Every structure is written in structure tokens, then in C-alpha cells.
């Protein structure tokens, strides 16, 4: 998935189909799954294109669009085991007792930091840095935050 108009349109369509109880295709099911994890975004999806803009939700500024895309990217990495180190990190953190959604957010935070930093600098995404940073994640670190 990309952070583009086509993805934005797809996410809004999934939100609408989900709200109406319509059938959803496989990738869209994964998007709907992410939406199910974030019911706090439900009213924002009804805003259409405005959902792409950051909103204050539960006292935090969040872009539901960006958050959903990031979730979907990491979800795909885990399901396909590509890159393999992502699913290893996921499993390690789950075995340490971290809840699934917290694990996803921990991995997403690392991915997002690297993705947007690379993008701003006009550099390619650094898979080795991603692997290294994920290797340092632990449940104990998450508990301290």
C-alpha cells in the first residue's frame, strides 16, 4: 500500500462497505480488520476525504488514513513473513506477554520512523536498520513508556 489518493479512496470504500455490511475482498478484509481494531476512527471515516487529515482522537493527533496504511503494511509483512524478521519480532514480543495490538503498534512505530525519515531525505528504506531496530524491541521497553 502507498500513501496516495488511490489508497485513500480504497480505504474510504472499505469503511463504507464495512459500515453497510457488504462483502469485502481479501486485501480489503485486512483493511477492515485494522478498522475493527480502531473503532475510535469510525465517525471520522464518514467524513470522506477529510479522514486523510490529522484529527484529535482521545487527546492525540492522529491521521486515521496514515495509521490504517501503516497497520496494513505491517499486517502484510507479518502474514507473508516478508521480511522474515518482522514476524520473528512479532512472535518474540507476543511470547514476552505483549498484547497483539501493542506489538503491532511497536513495530509500526519503528517502520513509520524509518519510512518517513527515508522519504524526507530522499533515500531508500533501510531494511538493515529496520531489522536492527526491531531486534532491540522488548516488552520491558514498552512497559516503561
Descriptive overview:
- The chain has eight helices and two strands.
- By secondary structure, the protein is mainly α.
- The chain folds into two domains: 1-68, no CATH class; 81-145, no CATH class.
- The longest helix is centred in the last third of the chain and has 22 residues, at 100-121.
- It starts with a helix and ends with a helix.
For the record, give the distance between the C-alpha atoms at the N and C termini, rounded to a whole number: 29 Å
Task: Give the helix level as a range of percent.
Answer: 55-70%
Please state roughly what percent of the residues sit in beta strands, choosing from under 5%, 5-15%, 15-25%, 25-35%, 35-45% or over 45%. Answer: under 5%
Shape: globular
Strand order of the largest sheet: 1-2
The succession of helices and strands, N to C, reads HHHEEHHHHH
Mean pLDDT: 93
List low-pLDDT spans.
none
Structural category? mainly alpha
State the main characteristics.
two-stranded antiparallel sheet; 2 strands; 8 helices; 145 residues; mainly alpha; 2 domains
Compact summary:
This protein has 145 residues and is mostly helical.
Question: SSE layout and pairings?
Answer:
Elements: H1 5-20, H2 26-37, H3 42-45, E1 55-57, E2 60-62, H4 64-80, H5 84-95, H6 100-121, H7 127-136, H8 139-144
Antiparallel strand pairs: 1-2
Amino acid at each position: 500500500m502507498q500513501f496516495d489518493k488511490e489508497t485513500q479512496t480504497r480505504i474510504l470504500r472499505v469503511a463504507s462497505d464495512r459500515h453497510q455490511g457488504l462483502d469485502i475482498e481479501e486485501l480489503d478484509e485486512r483493511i477492515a480488520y485494522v478498522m475493527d481494531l480502531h473503532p475510535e476512527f469510525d465517525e471520522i471515516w464518514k467524513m470522506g476525504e477529510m479522514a486523510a487529515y490529522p484529527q484529535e482522537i482521545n487527546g492525540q493527533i492522529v491521521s486515521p488514513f496514515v495509521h490504517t496504511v501503516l497497520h496494513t503494511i505491517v499486517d502484510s509483512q507479518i502474514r507473508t513473513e516478508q521480511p522474515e524478521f518482522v514476524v520473528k519480532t512479532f512472535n518474540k514480543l507476543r511470547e514476552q506477554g505483549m498484547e497483539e495490538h501493542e506489538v503491532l503498534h511497536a513495530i509500526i512505530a519503528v517502520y513509520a520512523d524509518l519510512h518517513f525519515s527515508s522519504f524526507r531525505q530522499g533515500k531508500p528504506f533501510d531494511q538493515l536498520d529496520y531489522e536492527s531496530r526491531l531486534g532491540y524491541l522488548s516488552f520491558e521497553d514498552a512497559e516503561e513508556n
